[in-house]
């Protein structure tokens, strides 16, 4: 698969990328599965609701049992009442994790990268760095490449690059080992260094 190369001034030729990573068929069902699993596994599971025994209430009977014409009521904590407890409350220890086999996850990542390559949304650079930890320098660098929102995947992130990118809403820089399906499908463009492509090929075998 031929991918376009860019530098600080724009286009700079093409790069022969491995077909095992960038020329696979698109498997929509598999991609959907790994994206959902990644998002589910990121959930903390901290939500909690109260049942009728946990809500704050008075134990006094709201009104007498008979003679009022209204339904019987014993406590205001009833789930039928406003401010009462939940019948089946959500528990904070609920497990949201999805299990995805390693082989499936690797195939899904390769499927996403292949589709991005077919849609001409991947660019390759020799290396990606900035001289100083300044957001303005990185913003200018991305703009000179002709890119808007971009995910930058490098083989190693230095301190200058990390500090320069953290205040840019449309730019994310990650290590190749932390490439995830959600980030790959989220950004309009993906920039890969040559060293990152070599690591990807080794990781996705």
Determine the N-to-C terminus distance. Answer: 16 Å
Mean pLDDT across residues: 90
**Main sheet characteristics:** 6 strands, mixed
* Helical proportion, percent range: 25-40%
Structural class: alpha/beta
* Sheet with most strands: strand arrangement: 2-1-3-6-4-5
- SSE sequence, one letter per element: EEHHHEHEHEHEH
3D shape: elongated
Count of individual beta strands: 6
Detailed description of the structure:
- 33% of the residues lie in helices and 16% in strands.
- The protein is α/β, with parallel strands linked by helices and 205 residues long.
- It has a 6-stranded mixed β-sheet.
- The radius of gyration is 26 Å and the shape is elongated.
- The model has no long low-confidence stretch (mean pLDDT 90).
Keywords:
single chain, alpha/beta, six-stranded mixed β-sheet, 6 strands, 16% strand
Topology summary:
Blueprint (H helix, E strand, L loop, with lengths): L1 E6 L2 E7 L2 H4 L5 H14 L60 H17 L3 E4 L9 H10 L5 E5 L4 H7 L5 E5 L5 H6 L2 E5 H10 L2
Parallel strand pairs: 1-3, 3-6, 4-5, 4-6
Antiparallel strand pairs: 1-2
At a glance:
This protein has 205 residues and is α/β, with parallel strands linked by helices. Helix content is 33%, strand content 16%.
